[in-house]
Amino acid sequence: MNVHVELLSKSQCFAGLSPRTQRCIADHSTLAEYALGSDLYRQGDPPSALYTLQAGRVKLYRQSAEKCQILALPYPGDCLGAETLPTGTPSPYTATALTAVTAVTLPPDALQSLLDEHADFQEIFLKLITNRLKQFVTLVHDLAFRDVTSRLAMVLIARAEVEGQPHDNGIAFDRLLSQQEFADMVGTAREVVYRTFKRFEEDGLVHMTRSSILIRDLKSLRAIALQEAR
Amino acid sequence: MINTLPIKHSELREIPAFHDLPDEQTQSIAAVMVRRQYAPGQIIFMEGEQAGSLWFVFQGRVKIIKQSLNGRIQGLCLMNRGKCFGSCPLFDMKKNPATAQALDDVTLFVLPEESLQQLKTRDAQLVKALLHIYSQRLEHLARVSEVLGSWTVSDRINDCLLTYAKRDSDEPIVELTHEKLAALIGTVREVVTRHLSLLEKEGVVRNENGRIILLNPNALLPPCACEDHKTSA
């Protein structure tokens, strides 16, 4: 499917680009759809296309023999992919659709010529890479210095800030992740997530259903999230 | 310490980021760079400080570390000859996200913020070199996250013992019950007790009532993301 320039200018990533560069991106992009559970790109593959999420959610993660570490949960409007195009090395992680996904897709060769010919795009791409880098520095800090309880509270707060909608008595957002996936975000076992969430519920901090999470006491949850145990 | 000896074009050429730049460009970059020297252990910049320069390692090694509110340190990467670090304005960050510390006698070439911003706007080659650097850094941090996230419960118990050890006597002492340790790590008492009995059998710790004596603290060091991937930093 063809991509209209208006679609691009709506995305924050491309908002600052000249009309000429936006036109050029639109000409080389396609609108692609991915089913729940399918991969946009895989760890170890050659550098991927650049994807701009239009609708749906994706998880970025590294997978080894027995462990999975989720690194990020891009939100509609975010860009992902092509992280290693500048070095030509394999993709450092996998991107898998958590829901049905629609994404504007710019293939690697078109991306490379845009980088070579459009200085304003080069600047935007540098910003995309460094923003992801910034996110990983924070992730490393949390993994190194916060305990599992704080990290789980932090994941809930971070998601509430981006995805949360005001609700009668709190802030609500889609659950999106299984207990195992919450465990993969904070580097623990599923049982620990189960126990911790149960305690959060008993303490009146959150209310969880199969499909949604309601944060009832943001202040107390934030206090738990900001504790640095180690 | 600033060393006023000018940076030679040939010296700059030894840094991978400048390999592919034309001569006149490296010459003009060398002219605006500053040579700095640091002794082992000296802090180059602190996490949270404002800093906008781009730093290149010419000699020696630099540790990039993060520090918790409680003073605990986590290595992010080790920068050896030719590597580049810093320059947070490119991240839209006003403050340094980590601390840089000299590991040996270190000589650095510094590209000041104003020069960097000027060069960036008219030099597509330099931006290309920066993209390369940050792309590598991204891969490295993704790996560090994975290693930290995949610490086992045993790694976390060991790490916790080292964190809370009081070191004023010959043998470090952790004054925590197994119950308290379990709460700190996010596990149950039985798991902590089982692991500590194992450590006692191996002669690494001695369990006493309400406290744990560390007989061989070095055996408790968890897998370090920094060391594992030294070569790819």
Alpha-carbon distance between the two ends of chain B: 26 Å
Number of strands of chain B: 12
In order across it, which strands form the biggest sheet of chain A? 1-8-3-6
Largest sheet of chain B: 5 strands, antiparallel
Question: From the 3D coordinates, which CATH architecture of the largest domain in chain B would you assign?
Answer: Sandwich
Query: What structural class is derived from the secondary structure elements of chain B?
Result: alpha+beta
| Tally of domains of chain A | 2
The CATH fourth-level homologous superfamily of the largest domain in chain A: Jelly Rolls
CATH architecture of the largest domain in chain A: Sandwich
Class per helix and strand makeup of chain A: alpha+beta
Overview of this protein structure:
- The complex is a heterodimer of chains A (230) and B (233).
- In chain A, 43% of the residues lie in helices and 23% in strands.
- Chain A is built from eight helices and twelve strands.
- In chain A, strands 1-8-3-6 form a four-stranded antiparallel sheet. A four-stranded antiparallel sheet of chain A has the order 2-7-4-5.
- In chain A, strand 11 and strand 12 form a beta hairpin.
- In chain A, helix 5 packs across helix 6 (179-186).
- The mean pLDDT of chain A is 91.
- With 233 residues, chain B is of the alpha+beta class.
- Chain B folds into two domains: 2-149, Jelly Rolls, CATH 2.60.120; 153-219, Winged helix-like DNA-binding domain superfamily/Winged helix DNA-binding domain (Arc Repressor Mutant, subunit A).
- In chain B, strands 1-2-9-4-7 form a five-stranded antiparallel sheet. In chain B, strands 3-8-5-6 form a four-stranded antiparallel sheet. A three-stranded antiparallel sheet of chain B has the order 10-12-11.
- Chain B is elongated.
- Classes of the chains: A alpha+beta (230), B alpha+beta (233).
- The interface between A and B is large, with 49 and 44 residues.
